[in-house]
Design a protein that fits this description.
The structure holds 2 protein chains of 2 kinds. Chain A has helices at 19-25, 86-99, 117-125, 161-168, 201-205, 268-271, 299-304, 310-321, 329-332, 337-355, 370-383, 429-440, 446-455, 474-480, 495-499, 539-546, 555-565; strands spanning 3-6, 9-12, 49-55, 61-69, 79-82, 149-151, 176-178, 185-187, 211-213, 226-231, 240-246, 249-255, 287-288, 360-364, 388-391, 401-403, 419-421, 460-464, 485-490, 502-505, 514-517, 522-526, 582-583. Chain A is of the alpha+beta class. Among the domains of chain A are: 3-84, Roll (Ubiquitin-like (UB roll)); 287-583, Rossmann fold (3-Layer(aba) Sandwich). The longest helix of chain A is centred in the middle third of the chain and has 19 residues, at 337-355. Chain A is elongated and about 90 Å long. Chain B has a domain at 64-184: 2-Layer Sandwich (Alpha-Beta Plaits), CATH 3.30.70. Chain B contains 7 helices and 5 strands. Chain B has a 3-stranded antiparallel sheet. A two-stranded antiparallel sheet of chain B has the order 1-4. Classes of the chains: A alpha+beta, B alpha+beta. The A-B interface holds A 104-109, 135, 141, 143, 152, 217-219, 221, 223 and B 77-81, 84, 95-97, 100, 109-110, 133-134, 183-185, 188, 191.
């Protein structure tokens, strides 16, 4: 097997690797700014200079007299690389000293501080003091560079990663370099800011604090953020992401490298799409009793005194319109609303399954996780196999948005596409369909159940929404209202929850654990970043209690169970899908 | 230890017999009066607080203040170093960017929108002062901090700046941090 040597560590050669990547495998970090695995190589920052040579057949090593950029040098067989010689160390220190010449050193107010490669490398490879006596060149900050991006010009080290990204990845080419030498700057043309759908990635790409996200600017210091591995749920690409939170509030979302899912980047729709999780419009307590539009309590109730909290609202509505009304308002005011709700749901669904099983419908949404769909479908089919399980509408907006764009904004050819924002704005259509397919053999689509709603309405309908945006149009909701009993699980108040007889709060993807299957059949598990919002609990817990399963929800156990029950989910066998997910079906 | 040994180690002491002079009490009263008279001619040992306030050393760690720069703006750059260093978690800052259209803030990027110190939770360790890269937060020698409610002991930015305004004229500025030099962030501000 051909091999190469990094600091006298012998490792195998792998195709299409440069010395930076090979050294990383050997456990040696070669500092670099301008090189990024997904962008073209320019070798301009000079930070990755190393000594390189060749080991000849007779065993002698011939080193090149000059230093070579590790990012530009392919890791070929018999290459000998030295990264810790005095020559290399001196070069690294000099490069850093040069990069810091005009750097303002305003780490105390820089958002990048704590995750800044300039800080890290200076600490590791640089000098402690500056020898510069001249005043530093000060340049104007550019807040106009993009709607979501600010450029702090004097922090820039001119690695041009952002410029190459807009040229090679988004194809929109808004950013470019003006001037040369110490007055070199990143710039946009007047009236053409960097506002493409992938623009937020340049902030992540920037190795220093020059490009900052306006959304996150000055919000939190990064050392207070705690991260959770998650999966973006705004379209069916299912980008791997990292959710950063502090004190149970999501602060930002970053892409997490996953070659199986999306690569290294993500779109701005997903990057800023988590905000519904902290919306004022969240449903924070279960509710029984059909409310008039937008109003929670009935007029009769408001005469008793406006409900002051969600629990009271619940207990009052229980009092008015359910068989649980034996309890008085004062009894229930401080009670946990959930046990009552679970009892109520169980009795309603059981009754319905007994009286008119064929007129009982459950509508599953493509926003559910596989585990949720499995637990709910399993419960309903065990209650009565004649209950209809249907797939709700899958939201599709426009067409797939592919990158890199051509000079006139045209989409690239299929084989040149590097990133796709999918038109299907739901994370888990395939996963939910697979569950329904197993439990019912054929998937009832929305046309079928909607037409039967019109002709021969279902008596009891359970709808799971959990969409971040309005999911069903008013026409569909008015058809659903014909049901004798409409039970809705949803995150946000919307036309559907206003029409419902029973509303069960769901939680957003940053608050729960689950698995989603993306457009290509890749199943990825996401993990909760923050605690559930007050008054809510994970949907899976509701379904677990509904079905009378004992114990707490444990994702891997449920997934292993799914693998044994549903052949399509055989890949879930161990319950763990790893950081990058597993392909379940294609 | 055996029981026998234990017996030997316990000794019972009788109180000394009172003699005639002790039984009379008079010599003891006379000695007491002598002590009192002697002290009447000594220097006072007590402090007349609060009528006369004590002279507190300048490096005393009392109530915090937020300094102003030479233009009267809050000197703090909202870097959160004090909040990070604080072992009692009594500092809470909310940062914001400066208004780019306001010429008086043209040279600044970031400043604290709110800056709250819970003086009751603070342990007056001085770590915030030490962590500050621009010498914006300092502990003054004000030691007699009182309040009627807990709420009024939670100092906001205005209150902390007013402590600066009060103390800066009093000639009792706190001793500067050991470095004696401002950090690079403040150098940029003053240039």
């Amino acid at each position: 097997m051909p091999s190469l040597f990094i600091n006298s560590v012998e490792i195998e050669v792998q195709p299409k690797e440069n010395i930076v990547q090979a050294a990383r495998r050997a456990g040696v970090e070669i500092p670099h700014y301008c090189w990024h695995p997904d962008l073209s190589v320019v070798a301009s920052c000079r930070m990755c200079l190393v000594e390189a040579g060749t080991k000849k057949d007779d065993g002698t090593v011939a080193m090149q007299p000059r230093l070579v950029p590790a990012c530009q040098t392919p890791a070929t067989p018999n290459t000998v690389v030295v990264t810790d010689s005095p020559k290399v160390k001196s070069s690294q220190a000099q490069t850093l000293e040069y990069l810091l010449l005009n750097h303002p050193l305003d780490c105390s107010i820089c958002d990048q501080a704590g995750e800044c490669y300039l800080q890290d490398y200076t600490y590791q490879f640089g000098k402690a003091e500056s020898r510069l006596d001249e005043p530093k060149v000060q340049r104007q900050d550019k807040y106009y560079i993009g709607e979501q991006i600010a450029l702090f010009t004097d922090r820039c080290v001119m690695c041009t990663r952002c410029v190459r990204f807009t040229r090679e990845y988004s194809g929109t080419a808004e950013l470019f370099v003006t001037s040369r030498g110490s007055v070199e700057e990143i710039e946009v043309l007047p009236g053409q800011p960097c506002d493409n759908k992938l623009a937020g990635n340049v902030v992540d790409l920037c190795p220093v604090g020059a490009l900052c996200s306006k959304d996150f600017l000055y919000k939190k210091r990064v050392w207070w953020l705690k991260s959770a591995d998650s999966v973006c749920q705004l379209c069916s690409t299912g980008c791997s992401i990292t959710v950063d939170q502090s004190e149970s509030k999501v602060e930002r979302v970053r892409p997490r490298e996953n070659p199986q899912a999306q690569g290294s980047f993500m779109c701005d729709d997903g990057r800023f799409g988590w905000k519904f999780a902290h919306s004022e419009n969240r449903i924070r307590a279960p509710r029984i009793g059909r409310a008039s539009h937008g109003q929670v309590a009935s007029p009769q109730l408001t005469t008793i005194g406006a409900p002051t909290n969600a629990v009271e609202q619940y207990s009052m509505s229980v009092n008015q319109s359910t068989p649980l009304a034996t309890a008085t308002v004062s009894d229930l005011t401080f009670a946990d609303p959930w046990p009552g709700l679970i009892n109520h749901l169980q009795s309603v669904l059981k009754q319905s399954a007994q009286d008119h099983p064929t007129k009982t419908l459950a509508v599953f949404s493509p926003f559910m996780t596989c585990e949720e769909a499995y637990l709910l479908a399993d419960y309903l089919k065990k209650t009565n196999p004649k209950i209809t399980l249907a797939m709700g509408p899958v939201p599709v907006v426009g067409e797939d948005d592919t990158y890199p764009k051509g000079p006139k904004g045209q989409s690239p050819a299929a084989e040149k596409t590097r990133f796709t924002i999918r038109a299907e704005k739901a994370p888990n259509r395939l996963g939910v369909e697979a569950v329904l397919q197993h439990f019912q053999k054929s998937i009832v689509n929305d046309e079928q159940w909607l037409s039967s709603m019109e002709l021969n309405p279902f008596e009891t309908v359970l709808v799971v929404g959990n969409s971040p945006a309005e999911w069903l149009n008013d026409e569909t909701v008015s058809k659903l209202r014909r049901a004798g009993k409409l039970i809705v699980v949803d995150i946000l108040e919307n036309n559907l929850t206003h029409a419902a007889d029973v509303v069960i709060p769901g939680v957003s993807f940053v608050e729960k654990e689950g698995t989603v299957v993306n457009h290509a059949g890749l199943a990825q598990t996401f993990h909760p970043a923050i605690r559930c919002s007050d008054g809510t609990r994970p949907d899976v817990r509701t379904y677990m209690e509904l079905s009378g399963r004992s114990g707490l929800y444990h994702g891997p156990t449920i997934r292993a169970e799914m693998a044994s029950v549903i052949p399509a989910f055989a890949a879930f066998e161990t319950g763990e899908l790893g950081e990058l997910g597993k392909r379940v079906f294609s | 230890m055996t029981t026998e040994n234990k017996k030997k180690t316990v000794r019972f002491a009788e109180p000394p017999k009172i003699g005639l002079s002790e039984a009379l009490y008079l010599p003891a009263i006379a000695a007491g009066i002598a002590t009192t008279v002697r002290h009447m001619f000594h220097k006072n040992q007590t402090r007349q607080y609060p009528e006369v306030e004590p002279d507190i050393p300048k490096n005393y760690r009392g109530v915090h203040r937020l300094n102003r720069d030479d233009q009267g703006r809050v000197k703090c750059v909202a870097c959160f170093m004090c909040q990070t260093a604080c072992p009692a978690n009594c500092i809470e800052i909310e940062a914001t960017g400066t208004d780019k259209n306001d010429p008086t803030w043209a040279d600044r990027d970031k400043f604290p929108k709110t800056f709250v110190i819970d003086e009751l939770r603070c342990i007056y360790c001085g770590m915030c002062e030490e962590a500050c890269p621009v010498d914006a937060i300092e502990l003054t020698s004000i030691y007699d901090l009182t309040g009627m409610t807990r709420q009024e002991m939670i100092f906001d930015k205005e209150k902390l700046l007013s402590v600066f305004d009060e103390t800066v004229q009093s000639g009792k500025d706190p001793v500067r941090t050991v470095r004696g030099q401002l950090g690079p962030a403040s150098e940029r501000l003053s240039s």
